[in-house]
Amino acid sequence: MDQIILVSFMIGENEYALDISEVQEVVKYQEVTPLPKVPDFILGVINLRGKIIPIIDLGKRIGIEDKKENSKKIIIVKKNNELYGLLVDKVKGVLKVSENEIEEIKYGDVKLSEKYIKGLIRRGDDIIIILNLDNILTPEI
User: Fold this and answer.
1) What's the whole-number average pLDDT of the chain?
2) Count of domains in the chain?
3) Which residues contact 3 (CB under 8 A, 6 or more apart)?
């Protein structure tokens, strides 16, 4: 049984996670330079140690309203040698789970929300949603 290591974080009242292999680092929120004519979930760009990184409001991207807290964090992720920043409310920490703890979402025989969700983990009464980073980073809405 393989162990999977995830980085968990909050958007509003909900807990989400990404595979740690996709995460480069977590940085404090910094002012974002807006860009013209981009989808509303792309906040703009930041300069992180000399690299220009696009910042995605992850709550807006997946359709979840956030609480507009001031303690936001940016999770820097890497896909296809490109860096992206995901704005989240709070980073909770690292989780180790076994593959058999990850469940699919089903409604009858249909899997729901496959586009953004890889699976769910139950922890007591809480549910942690594992996000599909590949589809979150596509430009399609």
Assistant:
1) 89
2) 1
3) 96, 97, 98
